[in-house]
Specification:
Number of strands: 0
Distance between the termini: 66 Å
Shape: globular
Helix content: over 70%
Strand content: under 5%
Number of helices: 17
Low-confidence stretches: none
Largest sheet: none
Order of helices and strands: HHHHHHHHHHHHHHHHH
Amino acid sequence: MDIVPLIDHIGEAQTAAFFGLITGVVFGVAAQRSRFCLRAATVEFARRKMGSSVAIWLLTFSTALVWVQGATLLGLMRPEDARMMAVTGSWSGAIIGGLVFGVGMVLARGCSGRLLVLASTGNLRSVVAGLIFAVVAQMSLHGWLASTRDHLARLWMTEGGVNLNLLTALGLPDYSGLGLGLAIAVFAILIARRSGIGYRRLIFGSGVGFAVALGWVLTYELSLAAFDPVSVTSATFSGPSANTLMFFLIPEPILGFDVGLIPGVVIGAFAASWLTREFKFQGFEGEANMRRSMTGAVMMGFGAMLAGGCAIGAGVTGGSIFVGTAWLALLCMWIGAMATDAVLDQSRRRRQTRATL
């Protein structure tokens, strides 16, 4: 892929933002049409169901594995060059942040990526929660919460100044990641067939995983061609949300992949909902739901920055290159979400059922 002419024409920073925009549009369209959401999958699993939400999440995750690991085998990217792999990881941050994020996404009724997609389709509850998420993420990165985040992250760090590559640590061959992705994809399709999911939703669900791979490949190619250092990254919504917010608030903003990603998701999700006539303004359903959603957004903002990524950034993007702390964070997100649903929502449903008897 020769991107030098594009860089010469518009500049390195503009090219990075353009690549972010492309990745975001693909993600936004695919996520809106597939209704991809980690929160929905964890709640469904917690209630002992293996339905459409679990199937779509597994398909997205497996597709990301297949595309990213395939691109790695073809030499289109190098996982060791990815920023989240090349820096020291935090096991304590993955555990604590993952649990906090999992609790928050159940309270907010959507992970950060899902909130952004819903906000783009007219959901005003998600607009408010998304803004709170971005503000708290920025506070956790450079503001009042940064010292707390840093203290918790330093409790247990990875060794050697880099993160842990699970494939290397387990001594597995390079093609094992691709094989795992294909195996999970087959399992996801079996669940999807049993759930009666249409092929269009399956295609769009796999498109979310493709967007992750697209971001990795584009930023890797840019890092090879650019004169200035470029972070090799892909779809995530904690850091980019904070960076995009600050882009519009400070006098001399920095343009990059992150600043293109968030508007791209908004454009893609909005276009998909508008063309399918699913765009609809929606608000909060009472004070209690508003309070719950705002609390969840705060927890997700802090939890994502502590865990090293959100449900997409750590759970799919980091997981696709087998970052050790990302897989641990994803596991803790599932645990936190399932426990919260069991303690709050399922218990409330049981009490309501008993009250009607």
